[in-house]
Amino acid sequence: MKRNRHAQGHALDSRDRYAGSYGPMNGAHNTTEKVKFMALADSTLNNTEIRELANSIRTSVPPIGDTVDVTALAVANEFSVRQFRTKPGIQSFIIVDDTAPIKGLPEGEITHRLIGYSLISNSADRRGGIGHELGHFYLHKGNLPVIYDACPSPGAAKYTDAKDETANDQAELFARVLLIPAKEFSDRMKAELNMAGINEADNGTNHTYIKTTKIFQSLGQRFVMTPRNIAQRVSDDDPEIKTLRLQYPFLKGIAETYVQDVDSNRIDTNR
What we know:
Elements: H1 8-12, H2 14-18, E1 23-25, E2 28-30, H3 47-58, E3 63-64, E4 67-68, H4 70-76, E5 80-84, E6 90-97, E7 113-118, H5 123-140, E8 146-152, H6 162-179, H7 182-195, H8 206-223, H9 227-234, H10 239-247, H11 251-263
Parallel strand pairs: 5-7
Antiparallel strand pairs: 1-2, 3-4, 6-7, 6-8
Helix pairs in contact: 3-6, 5-6, 7-10, 8-9, 9-11
């Protein structure tokens, strides 16, 4: 295990950081923490190893169509998964405390592990958020007795620490690989491109961009992930996806442009 990015005392004293931040509010819960909420260990895994880990974990999770039941995976790891009224710009958060039950939850609920997601999130945001926080659990807990992280929504506030941004990217990769299996994704993408009349020789015109982004939205519904997640998956280096990009050379450029357009609010979409 590499060194902890933050002072070890921050992790050990983290109950003081989050205690009282979660309380009942109209049937939901409330957190007032800011984006800078992380206390995680550095992952010792590179991207290839992260993909291998996510793929191996997927085989132990109940399938749902082309993907998996991510809430069942969280529960299997002893997490309570709850909806919260979060600070604007916060999509999800995780708290793991091996030293004491988490404070501030409803009376009678005792848990050492909590994943929360935004009250206003849709089903794709929820799945992606739970997968993201599980990524932190598998990749960044290490030997720390306490970890906590709040994940900003796409296009919202950014982490100020480059290492925090790296950890966030690693958790995002874990979630994409876990919830958008490479083979199923590649097969579905090829089928959708063919149905849309887009072939390998296409040069990525504006007309092709519009058609392809509609495919991102269609696949988002199939995998219950955001269109932005689908577009990001195009750039991942799973062997099946690399083969897909070789067959459709224009695809990565369109996907990257789409993510930029979503993050800058140039297009109106469910991310």
